[in-house]
Amino acid sequence: MAGRPSNRDERYAQVMQALVRCVARFGLEGASLTQIAAEAGLTRPLIRHHLGNREDMIAALQDHVLHSFAEQTEALIAALPGDAPAAALVEYLFADTTGSSPDMVLAFAALTARAAEDADLRTACRESLLGFEAAIARVLRQDNPQADDHAVNAAAHGIVALYLNVASLAPLDMPQGWTQTAQTIAHKLLEGLDGGS
């Protein structure tokens, strides 16, 4: 008989969600253990136990955010239909019901800001973003086998840029037409791949 599962993993997830929310709101330098504890509804010593010192906290945030992005990308690609996956991808990325979290995008932005002074973090963030772009390019290439690689890569780059812009600015509660314009431009990028252009 298996023992009762520990609540350590559940507690750690709770701490990480609070960390992401605080970094999204206050930045890496502004997110304190006290704020994270209040956001998580836990004590400051328990937060310190899970996150350690500031450098440990940043490393934990990096691991959590980059691992979450990789998992979400894999799940998104796996869920695409066999017919017209590129159009479905654009619809998913710009839909109101998307699973992307503005807090995660803003936490990623905070990490990238710090990456200017941390070569390892810069490499990890760059690889994560380029991995996302490469996954988008694979979908576009699958749906448009006649298109040349340069066109596919350019379209994937544009779609990623549009998506990150929309996701990172979501807290501004931009008008619906603003997001729809980004989605329309992303579809135009797909249309540009039709016919091998």
From TrEMBL:
Q: Which UniProt keywords apply?
A: DNA-binding, Transcription, Transcription regulation
Q: In which residue ranges does the UniProt entry place its DNA-binding region annotation? A: 32-51
Coiled-coil stretches noted in the UniProt entry, renumbered to this chain: none
Question: Which residue intervals define the domain HTH tetR-type in the entry?
Answer: 9-69
> Does the keyword Nucleotide-binding belong to this entry?
no
What InterPro entries does its record include?
A: Homeodomain-like_sf, HTH-type_TetR-like_transc_reg, HTH_TetR
- Pfam families noted in UniProt: TetR_N (PF00440)
Is Transcription regulation there in the keyword field?
yes
Please give the name of this protein. TetR/AcrR family transcriptional regulator
Organism (species): Ruegeria spongiae
Lineage, please? Bacteria, Pseudomonadati, Pseudomonadota, Alphaproteobacteria, Rhodobacterales
